[in-house]
Amino acid sequence: LAIKALNGRVCGGYYKKDYAFADNNLVQIIRDAGLAFAERHSRELLTANATLIVKRVMRLKDRTYRHEHLQNVELLCRYLLPYLDMPLVDKELLILAATFHDIGKLVVPDEILMAPGAFSPDEFARMKEHVAYSDQILRGLRGLEKCWLAAVDHHEAFDGTGYPAGKKGDQISLFGRILAVLDYFDAMASERSFRKAIPTQDVIGQIRELAGSKFD
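^ thats the sequence. predicted structure below, dont judge the formating
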């Protein structure tokens, strides 16, 4: 078990057996591993609490979110993770990106967020400003650079017809391209004040048709 723990990085790195089992080294290695685990657990707890605060504030701010958009996009993200070929640290960041992707809506006026029907062109223009607000909120936060790009990019389109910058193809961050699909899926498959929810299979069909234009 000790060798398995050492080789599996449970103890924070690789150790040669002749070193690990000499003198009192194993005790120190395990002690250091316990401290590292406690620090990592504390950091994960802080992250979980921070994301929960964001979700609660967003829910209180936008009372039209009957479909719990943030939770839905995060859940879709979790379902997608096993199929994504990316490092574990990026998978964890992608979950955070799902939570933060619409954080700029905290700054959008209530009369826009709670508009009873479909947006007028002026209302839609003001709603699109939430991307710029997300940019201002998340820009420069160390360790959250990919989350920031996802929030800025998730309304860009693969063919360059999206907003705010008209990026196209690989100019759009990978996180932004992933969240664009999940954000669209939940928006279409959830009921809105001005339309019924679109059946899941129909939304999947739309996404397939938009592959290469709106989506990667």
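The chain has eleven helices and no strands.
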